[in-house]
Structures are given as C-alpha cells and as structure tokens.
Specification:
With 153 residues, the chain is mainly alpha-helical. Helix content is 77%, strand content 0%.
Length: 153
C-alpha cells in the first residue's frame, strides 16, 4: 500500500491534510483570525494583486477540497472518500471552466480587454476545462475499478 494511504497510527497524510483544511476553513470564520490573516497578507504579499490572488486561490482550493474530503472520509473511508471528492472537485472545475468559456466576458464587450481579444480570454479557462475533464474521467475510471474489485471480493 502507498505510504500516503496507510500508516501505523491510523491516519494517513491525506487524512491529516483534510483535517487541517477543515480546521482552517472553520478558523477563518472567527473575526480575529480573519483579521490576522488579512494583516499577514499585507505584510507578506506587499499588496501585490497577483500574489494575493494566487494565495487565495490555492488556499480556497485546499480548504474546499479538504473539507469535502474530510466529510466523505468520515462516512465512506479513505479511498472511496478521496476518489469521490476528487471526482466532485474536478467535475466542478470542468463545469466552471465550461461556463466561463461560454459566458465570459459579461457586460458590454469591448474589442480588447487588457490587450486580449474575446478568443484569447477564453484560452486559459478552456485549458482548465479540458484538464479538469481529463482528471474527472480518471477519477471515474478509478471509482469503477474500485467497485469492480469490491465485487470480486
């Protein structure tokens, strides 16, 4: 078994990551912690919009994925919970990319948005949609193989 799935103390590294993400997700609901995080942004990121957006994007991905995994882990177990949460997250990302490609940009459509035309704006979300769809199919294949292995036993 993989070292990420089985450990002697009962919880794997993925389990601890999910627990940490769930605790982080609940901690940001406390106003003093949220204020401290905002001050950390100002101190560490130096008010760079790109760096702040990157940190927020990674943090929200970890917290969203971690809390979903933690809930599924408690009900379904490590493997099945990870596969279902991965399929849900990549399916959501694929649908989100598809909607962005179809309906972006909203409002009055200028000829150029920061030097990009309407097609160039859709390249990155289109790549995210295709990559997420591929990962979604991979998770579905892994789920079907897990189900087939459970039927044999």
């Amino acid at each position: 078994m993989s070292r990420f799935l089985q450990r002697d103390d009962g919880l794997s590294r993925l389990d601890w990551l999910g627990i940490a993400a769930a605790v982080g997700g609940l901690a940001v609901l406390v106003p003093p912690i949220r204020g401290a995080i905002g001050e950390f942004y100002d101190w560490a990121i130096w008010s760079s919009v790109f760096r702040r957006g990157l940190l927020i994007g990674i943090g929200s991905f970890v917290i969203f994925g971690g809390t979903v995994y933690l809930i599924l882990w408690t009900n379904l177990g490590t493997r099945l919970g990870f596969l279902i949460s991965g399929a849900a997250l990549t399916g959501f990302a694929a649908l989100n990319g598809l909607l962005f490609v179809m309906y972006s940009p909203r409002g009055p459509r200028p000829a150029d948005i920061e030097g990009l035309n309407a097609f160039q704006i859709r390249i990155m979300p289109g790549a995210m949609m295709i990559g997420s769809a591929i990962l979604f199919v991979m998770f579905l294949v892994a789920l079907s193989r897990l189900e087939a292995a459970d039927k044999v036993e």
